[in-house]
Amino acid sequence: MSLLTIYQDYPGFLMTVFRKQRLKNFHLRQVEVNTHVLCYVAEGSAEITVDGQKQVLDAGKLLLLRPTAKIEELRCQSGPLHIYRLHYVEVRHDQHESAPERKGVKVLAVSTPASFLTVLEELSQLTRKRDYSSFLRSQALLYELLGIVDDEQKKNEEKGIGAIEETIAYMQKHYRESLELGSLPKLAGLTPSSYCRAFKRATGMTPGEYLTGLRMEHAKELLAHSGGSVKDVARNVGYADELYFSRLFKKREGLSPQIYMKQSEQRVVVVSKLFLQDHFLAMGIQPIAAPSFPNYFETRTGFPSYLQQKLRGTKALNAEQLIDPKEILTLSPDVIVRMNFFHNREAGDWEKIKGTVSFDGYPNWIDYQTKLATLFKKESQAEKIIKHIDKVEKQARDALLPVTRTGEWTMIRVLKDEVRLYGVEGHALADLFYHKLGFAPDPNVTHAAYKPNALIDLIELNPERIIVFWSEREHVAALWNNPLWRDLRAVRENKVYHPANHEWDPWGPFGREHTIQRSTAYFLQVAQG
Questions:
Q1: For the chain, how far is it from start to end, CA to CA, in angstroms?
Q2: Mean of pLDDT over the chain
Q3: CA 43 to CA 27: how far, in whole Å?
Q4: Is 49 helix (H, G, I), strand (E, B) or coil?
Q5: CA 159: distance to chain centroid?
Q6: Which residue has the higher pLDDT, 418 or 3?
Q7: Fewer Cβ neighbours under 10 Å: the N or C end of the chain?
Q8: How does strand 12-23 pair with strand 70-91?
């Protein structure tokens, strides 16, 4: 049987437009699509409404649109949006039928983002050329991309990937309402028992625990800043019964809502390269000013997105440059908390300011939390925080067993001009992933912290699996042009994992829990794929 006979029912496709774009403060309205569109988000986040369906596009997500789909609105949510946009048309012949119908809009996560991005980068280079050979090669890459997309869609249809994320988004939107948890399995298209198991695998919590945590975080923000009564706060986060809310709050946070409100009044300024505001927020203290990194975190304030809402009203101090003590004094702080670091040129000025507390760095996040708790007489809250994170870590470790029970892992960071190889101790990443979550390190990695300029070390190691942290996708894509990299076992066997981990920060309790939840969801999805 000839190939023509086998594939005669399938249409051909021709690429018409390819764009690599960086959009900032972008807002699009009312556009009708007249071709097939494949749009991959490399960095950033956006919200799109197509044919009445609202979708969130995060890094690593793929948007698929069919002809006649109507984009009603597209809005960047935070920072610049880096996308690859590909338009293609169907080549129709008399003997061909149309491709199987799919929804006018589809959003799915790519399970192999590093290799997918590599194909897009190669396609980007080819489309700049005008010769016939480049045209043919670009068409071949188009079909390679479409093959990957079709495989991803089949996986999603067979395994329901993304259903849990949809219900989490639903909870985040409707947590203020009297939300019926029994309706969530139906929303996900799963049986109640299957849904609960899948939800716990993805988050380490039951749906009820997740919803309670979501409500409590918003309650703490309202208690600290809204000026409303406890009764008002309870109703604003979905609890009609003030007494029930108060009991639940005290059980979770270790103190009553009334005491929490009172203790939130101290005026604290954080001057540090580390996000100590994370530790303060966990103890119920919102700093009046705290460090931000506007060139790293693509949010309006320069705070990571998971702290953005919690730090509403906190002045952002640009920690990428020297912070002027005079600027801080205008805020009339009660306490200034700063860290001692090498080459800290302004240290002398800070030491002269009344109320300044300085201390050295510590090996792990618990030491920071305990030190700050002692300074601010929050020992009971710190103990509760530490126990909570320990519970989250253990739940995630159990959930990740299908991923971690076999194989060895190596962690790297790719910068523009170097590759860093992380060790087995002395760093927050090693502590969390190797010692808490159960990822087994390559036995040949024995150093602490990380090795800079370690590409040759990595090649000699020839690891089985590689996790890429805190790396710009264009830097990772550039590394794929190196034949030594492509010859690594992990690369050849497609075991290089590059989740959207720009905001994974295991040094503080909120950042650590955020990292655990996101990494657990990512690796469990990889395991399912």
A1: 32
A2: 85
A3: 17
A4: strand
A5: 22
A6: 418
A7: N
A8: antiparallel
The residue type of 323 is I
SS3 content of the chain, % helix, strand, coil (to 5): 45, 20, 35
pLDDT at 24: 75
Phi and psi angles of residue 522, each rounded to the nearest 5 degrees, phi first: -65, -50
Tell me whether strands 61-65 and 105-109 are parallel, antiparallel or unpaired.
antiparallel
Judge if pTM exceeds 0.85.
Answer: no
Per-residue buried b or exposed e for 438-470, using 16+ beta carbons within 10 Å of the residue's own CB: bbebbeebeeeebbeebbeebeebebbbbbbbb
Lowest mean pLDDT among 310-324, 377-391, 481-495: 310-324
E strand intervals along 24-110: 27-32, 36-50, 53-58, 61-65, 70-91, 105-109
Contact of 204 with 520, CB cutoff 8 Å? yes
Model pLDDT for residues 214-256, shown as the tens digit of each residue: 899 888 878 877 778 899 999 999 999 999 999 999 888 777 8
DSSP three-state, residue 408: coil
Q: Give the whole-angstrom CA distance, residue 34 versus residue 73.
A: 16
Taking the C-alpha atoms of residue 33 and residue 368, their distance in angstroms, rounded to an integer, is: 52
Task: For residue range 362-382, list pLDDT tens digits in order.
Answer: 878 999 999 999 888 889 889
Widest distance between CA atoms in the chain: 87
The number of CA neighbours under 13 Å toward the Cβ of 478 is: 11
Q: What are phi and psi of 80, to 5 degrees?
A: -65, 150
d(CA 261, CA 277): 18
Tokens encoding 351: 């030491």
Q: Is 167 helix (H, G, I), strand (E, B) or coil?
A: helix
Judge contact between 145 and 119, C-beta under 8 A.
yes
522: helix, strand or coil: helix
Q: Which helix (H) or strand (E) holds 154?
A: helix 132-159
Q: Which among 54, 103, 56, 49 is positioned nearest to 72, based on CA atoms?
A: 49
SS3 category, 19: strand
Q: Which amino acid, 18? A: F
| Most confident residue range from 80-84, 337-341, 484-488 | 484-488
Structural tokens at position 170:
């639903």
* Strand extents, DSSP E, 210-369: 268-271, 289-292, 315-318, 335-339, 356-359
Check: CB of residue 484 under 8 Å from CB of residue 427: no
Long-range Cβ contact pairs of 522-528 (< 8 A, separation 24 or more): 522/497, 523/400, 523/403, 523/497, 524/201, 524/202, 524/399, 524/400, 524/402, 524/403, 525/109, 525/111, 525/161, 526/111, 526/403, 526/497, 527/402, 527/403, 528/155, 528/159, 528/161
Residue 159, helix vs strand vs coil: helix
Tokens 């639940």 sit on residue: 248
Beta-strand runs (E) in 92-207 = 105-109
Structure tokens at 257: 């809502």
Higher pLDDT, 323 or 280: 280
Number of neighbouring beta carbons within 10 Å of residue 523: 21
pLDDT reported for residue 278: 94
